[in-house]
Design brief:
The chain is 36% helix and 18% strand. Strands 1, 2, 3, 4, 5, 6, 7, 8, 9, 10 and 11 form an eleven-stranded mixed β-sheet that branches.
C-alpha cells in the first residue's frame, strides 16, 4: 500500500495528506426551497437510534422528513454504486468512512458543496475540492465485556490479544468483506511497527468470532459470546450492556463524511441536512450519542473522550485496487 508520510491527531493532532487544506468557499443554503422539497433521503452507517439525535432534530427544526437507510459503510457504498450505475440513484446524502467515500467520489457520484458551519472546522479537515464534507471521526480500540473480564485483566495493547487465553474469545469484522477492518489491519504498522504483519497472522490463529461489520461486535460482547472485540470506542455509549473500552497508547481512527449526491432528487434539502450535521447544534446532538465530532470544543459523552481524541491517528486509505488486493490476502489468512 502507498503510505502517506505524514499524519495528524485531533486536538493535539495533525492530519497530513488525508484532508487537504480548504480553499473552496462555503455555499449558502436555500431553506425555503429545501422545505418545498419536503424530504431528504440519507444512506448512512450510524445506528438509527444514534442518528435519531440528528434526524429528529432536523425534522423538528425544518419540518423536512428524513428517510434514513442504514447499513455498514461497505454495504452503503454497494447499494449507492449499484443504483448509480443503473442510472437510478435513490440517495440525496450518503454518509460513511473515507475509504468507501473516495471510491464513490472517483465514480463522480458527489456534487460540490461546502456547508457554512464546516468552515469552523480546522483547515486540515477541509476538502480542497469542495466535494466531501467531514463531520465526525471514529477511533478504534479493544472493547471488553466487564462481567467476563476484570479491568485489571484487560489487554493493554493490541499485541496482548495474541495471549493464548484469548483464543476463540475475540470478536471482529471479517476483513475479507469489511473495508474498514481491512484498512485497520493494513495500518497497524502505525501502532506496532514491524510487528504488524506477524500480529495479523497471530490474530488469525486466535480464531476470532467473525461478524459482518463493526457494530455487531458490540452485540456479541453484550451477549457474552466473546470477551473482547475490535471495534469503535463509541459503542460503549451506543449499546446498553456490560462493555467498556481499553485506553491504549494510540488509536487508529477514520474520518467520516456526509456528501451530496451529484444527482440528488432533493438537492436543497440535502444541502440543508449537511449544514445541520456540521452545525454546533447537530454536532452537540450526535456527540451526546458518543460520536467524536469535528466542531471545536465539542466532545462525546464518553469517559476520557478528550484523551482518546488526543491519541487518535488517522489511517491511510487504500484505493479501490488496493482494497481488493488486501481483502483477498486476508481471506486466505483468516479462512
Amino acid at each position: 500500500m502507498n503510505k502517506i508520510n505524514q499524519y495528524w491527531t485531533f486536538g493535539a493532532m495533525a492530519l497530513a495528506g488525508l484532508i487537504l487544506s480548504g480553499s473552496a468557499v462555503a455555499q449558502q443554503v436555500n431553506i425555503e426551497a429545501a422545505k418545498k422539497e419536503g424530504k431528504v433521503v440519507v444512506y448512512g452507517s450510524v445506528p438509527p437510534k444514534s442518528m435519531g439525535a440528528i434526524n429528529n432534530g432536523f425534522e423538528k427544526k425544518y419540518g423536512i422528513k428524513v428517510e434514513y437507510w442504514r447499513a455498514s459503510s461497505t454495504k452503503v457504498m454497494d447499494r449507492a454504486l449499484t443504483e448509480w450505475r443503473a442510472g437510478r440513484p435513490g440517495f440525496d446524502v450518503v454518509e460513511g468512512n473515507r475509504g468507501v467515500q473516495l471510491i464513490m467520489r472517483n465514480n463522480n457520484m458527489f456534487g460540490k458543496f461546502i456547508s457554512p458551519s464546516s468552515e469552523k472546522f480546522p483547515d486540515k479537515f477541509k476538502d480542497k475540492q469542495g466535494v466531501m464534507t467531514p463531520w465526525r471521526f471514529l477511533p478504534i480500540s479493544i472493547l471488553y465485556n466487564t462481567e467476563l473480564v476484570k479491568k485489571g485483566d484487560t489487554p493493554k495493547s493490541f499485541n496482548d490479544l495474541l495471549n493464548a487465553k484469548w483464543k476463540g474469545q475475540i470478536s471482529m469484522p471479517d476483513p475479507s468483506r469489511h473495508t474498514t477492518t481491512a484498512q485497520f489491519l493494513a495500518n497497524l504498522d502505525k501502532l506496532i511497527g514491524e510487528k504488524a504483519q506477524p500480529f495479523v497472522k497471530g490474530l488469525a490463529n486466535q480464531r476470532p468470532h467473525m461478524v459482518e461489520s463493526l457494530a455487531p461486535v458490540a452485540n456479541v460482547l453484550v451477549r457474552g459470546e466473546a470477551k473482547l472485540g475490535i471495534t469503535y470506542v463509541k459503542y460503549v455509549k451506543q449499546y446498553k450492556g456490560p462493555i467498556d473500552y481499553v485506553m491504549i497508547d494510540k488509536f487508529l481512527a477514520d474520518p467520516n463524511y456526509a456528501n451530496l449526491s451529484a444527482k440528488a432528487n432533493n438537492p436543497n434539502a440535502a444541502k440543508l441536512y449537511i449544514e445541520y450535521v456540521t452545525s454546533p447544534e447537530g454536532q452537540k446532538a450526535i456527540a451526546q450519542e458518543g460520536e467524536f465530532v469535528l466542531y471545536p470544543g465539542i466532545n462525546p459523552d464518553i469517559h476520557d473522550a478528550q484523551t482518546v481524541a488526543e491519541r487518535s491517528i488517522f489511517m491511510d486509505t487504500p484505493d479501490e485496487k488496493e482494497f481488493k488486493k488486501i481483502m483477498g490476502e486476508y481471506h486466505k489468512l483468516f479462512f
